[in-house]
Amino acid sequence: MTRLFLIALTALILGSPSLKLAGDIHKDQERLVSEPWGEPQLKDVRFDLFKPFTKLDLSRFHYSRRQTGGYVIDKWAEANKGGLTIYQAAINLPVDTFEDGNPVYINGKSTGKTEKLHIKTTFKFRIYIIRQANGGELIYGTEEQEGLYQMVINNKDVPIMYEDIPLGIRYPDLKSLLKMVRRF
Length: 184
Hints:
- The protein is α+β, with helices and mostly antiparallel strands.
- The chain has one domain (25-183).
- The protein has 5 helices and 7 strands, in the order ααααβββββββα.
- It has helices spanning 2-14, 21-34, 38-41, 47-50, 174-183; strands at residues 61-68, 71-78, 85-106, 109-131, 137-143, 147-153, 156-157.
- Strands 1-2-3-4-5-6-7 form a 7-stranded antiparallel sheet, sandwiched between helices.
- The protein starts with a helix and ends with a helix.
- Residues 1-22 form the signal peptide.
């Protein structure tokens, strides 16, 4: 009885597992289109390759969760070996740093100094790794406020450009995440 209670409590605290890819794609498409050169990028940024995975019935998949290296990694794997596997990795990266800002001028003359900007925030990332039965791999990286920052299709990076990049942003290390996922 106690064990059943602990399992129910853990599920309540962690929340029910859900693939958040559909919401992230929708949000990121809207953000990218609002960028000055976002519309032309849509032909290269292949949201269409990821959308079929948002409609899957995950109840037929085996689900597991692991916390490692600062990540919370959710995994959905088809029952048959070598089938489709979807990873959703979430990580919060706090930033507390100083960046050089604008040059300081006194009476129109440069002092040779720059103002220091204190940046203190937390960037919230989600990275999706989709391993297909045919051996193909899709990677989709997004940040809660900034949107899509990385897309990899079968080991090829898709370039993504934004007009502004937030000061102090630090991106997750994809290589180390892929190593963690391989051991999962």
